[in-house]
Amino acid sequence: MTERQRLITKYISKLSKATATRYNLHFLSQPNNDESARHMLLDNLEIIRKDTGNAELGNVIDDVSSRKTKSITFGHQSKTKSQSKSKFSESHADRDPFTQGVKKNSEQRAITLFNSLFLEDSLNAFEKAKKDLDIRNKYYEQRAEINLVLGRYREAIALASKCRLYDMAFVAAIAAGELDYAQMLVACNLRAIESQKPDKDVVATTFEMIHLLLFICFAKSTSKETEAIARQIFNNTNYELTFLKEMTELFINRQFYEFIQKLGELKDIFDLSIYTSPSSLHLISAIKANIVANEVEPYASLSFDELNNKLGLSNDEIASILRTLIREGRVNGKIDLINNVYIGGVADLQGRQMDDLINRTVLVRQNFQLNLWKQEYNQINTSKKT
User: Fold this and answer.
1) Which of 5, 24, 95, 172 is geometrically suited to a Cys-Cys bond with 53, CB 3.0 to 4.6 A?
2) Nearest Cα residue to 193 out of 153, 260, 145, 239
3) How many CB atoms lie within 10 A of CB 373?
4) Can you list the alpha helix ranges (DSSP code H) found in 221-345?
5) Could you read off the pLDDT of 176-187 as tens digits, one per residue?
6) What average pLDDT does the chain have?
7) What is the pTM of this model?
8) Which residues neighbour 177 within 8 Å (Cβ) at sequence distance 6 or greater?
9) Where is the composition biased (Basic and acidic residues) (predicted)?
10) How many CB atoms are located within 10 Å of the residue 270 CB?
């Protein structure tokens, strides 16, 4: 196998059928000179097309393969019944419920459509099955994956979260750019990697999940937090992850200048994934912002020139990032745009000043009450003596 074939296999091995189809199309759409990898992807897709009898998928494969379109969509509802019927009759028509004379219940119909990768139709069928069948099954897993494959990431997040499909919710959150929510799911997915359960019918391989977890660390965690998570990950995997380990070491050791210089290479890895490619620019921005937050955190003040030397970012970019961090409450400080200086600990200082003021007020009140009590006590004793 070529190097690219091995890389692709690490991303698509043991994925569920719908996600595997989406991934094969994604890699097929990328310009690459490796003809062996290209033929492997076409062979994979042809096997899926024959297995599902989905003629629409065949058209999508042809369009993506010939570079006729950059849009990768499949499984959408046919525009007309006649189009739908003609497509089904091209190959394995007997497998589609629309052409069969036998009536099936809503659940069977939905599952058949899902397995045949008529995703839009199956989503509607699952919605109907929920109403028709008096059962508790809400088909969250199937509906979540359908929305994920169709690029409806926020719907996928909502459905996956309801049934605690933390891996699906995690990757959907990354694709949607909801990185704060993705960070909340790091611990759950980290435990899944540590348990070393075999990948089967998943939406992301262990190889990819390792990358995604550390990408979120780069975007949202401190260097110490990242070190703890990285140790857990690398102690439980045998994958060769040379570049990822290099980037992780740079981040942990706070070698942020060198880290930022390699962001272009990191973006190339983002483009490999169907989950990081939709939000790659947002992810890069979040990583830069997190690096700035990590860099300014220990300092009482830091000039933009110093930050420029430490990180290699322009003064305008530094100012923009700091404004966002302050607005989000991720750093306690303010910006002096006249002198181009970040002044840290402003909120902490104001908090301490407020605490001191409250303590002094309480002390004054206590002293006042004590003096008042003394006066009353003395008056009572004086009246008793007279």
Assistant:
1) 95
2) 239
3) 10
4) 223-234, 242-252, 256-261, 263-270, 280-296, 304-311, 315-327
5) 999 999 999 999
6) 85
7) 0.81
8) 278, 279, 282, 283
9) 87-97
10) 20
Q: Residue holding tokens 């490796």? A: 34
Tokens standing for residue 118: 């008529």
Token pair for residue 98?
């629309």
Question: Looking at the chain, which runs of residues are DSSP E strands?
Answer: 301-303, 333-336, 341-344
Phi, psi of 297 (to 5 degrees): -55, -45
Q: How far apart are CA 100 and CA 51, in angstroms?
A: 18
Residue with tokens 């530094």: 318
Tokens coding 114: 């899902």
The letter for the amino acid at 99 is T
Tell me how long the chain is.
Answer: 386
Name residues whose C-beta falls within 8 Å of residue 41's C-beta, 6 or more positions apart in sequence: 8, 24, 27, 28
Task: Enter the tokens of residue 242.
Answer: 């040379």
In degrees rounded to 5, what are phi and psi of residue 336? Answer: -100, 100
